[in-house]
Amino acid sequence: MLYMITNRVPQGDDLTGEPSLEPSYWVHDGAHDPESLTTWRRLSPRGFVLALASAAARFPRVALPQGHEDQRHVSLFVHGYNNTWRQSLALYRRITRDLFAVHGENDDLESRPTESLGLCVLFAWPSDGKAHHYLADRRDARASAQALAEALWLLHAWQQRMDAAALRDPAKGCRAKTSILAHSMGGYVAQHAMQAAWTRANQPLLVSLINQLVLIAADIDSDIFSTGESISAGEGEGMMNLCYRITALYSGRDSTLGLSAGLKHFGKRRLGRRGLADPSRTPDNVWALDCSSMLDEGDVHSGYFASEMVRQKLRMILRGVDRRVIEKGGRALQMV
What we know:
Shape: globular
Strand content: 15-25%
Strand order of the largest sheet: 3-2-1-5-4-6-7-8-9
Number of strands: 9
Number of helices: 10
């Protein structure tokens, strides 16, 4: 199955670059060409959550805490700048193939507990798909944050129901973690969506909505997490407080983000190009990994998903492997 949440306006067999006031929710059975929107089935928000819950209920149950690394994920993928819907769909399908796995209705997931990381959901926002529309895409990205925040609240409500069920019967507890993979300007969408979600929840502390947030070549400020352990109204506070761990994958060879820094405003390096501005001032749940040596020559900005070395790191990150082990490329020993 393929899963999609979008705030693009549907038109015929396509999703346009125009923003919708409300997100829509879609599933695809994989039997037909997903590049035609007519082969997708639109669901209500409740129907979409039930579809995810049904799939997650078939994940293998693991013993916690010792088996936490084998627990599967319901993960959101947020694409970046300069992507049409079909381009973002192609990248999403590559991610499901390489990191997750697209399973049919009759697959016996219980008998294959280690083959997949779970399931992935595409969040498609109205990027114009044109290289010279950077500033317009940035406005659309910020405007799309509320739609993503709504999706996060759907997952949050689902988690709360599963937690309540587990109190009555541990066997009915949730079998999945939640995570986000955000690429390029998708990190900017995630930044503002999580800030909106955190504000909506009256800024509670110690509430982990997302297990792993992975910012890949993120087109956001490199100093966004430099508030340390203090509580403030900074734009990174929502992410820091709603995520168990945040990982930024970056490369100094990323010329696309070099251009982005010049278009935004003076003095702000990009997280996906520079890494953390001051690691000593970031909270313990935020870290960065330099992927320069893992990326091929050419389009570094989009090359993370084409690199098997990076994909191996992503698998370890989503499983919750200790960051020191990930840096060394060794076997998991403990969590962060």
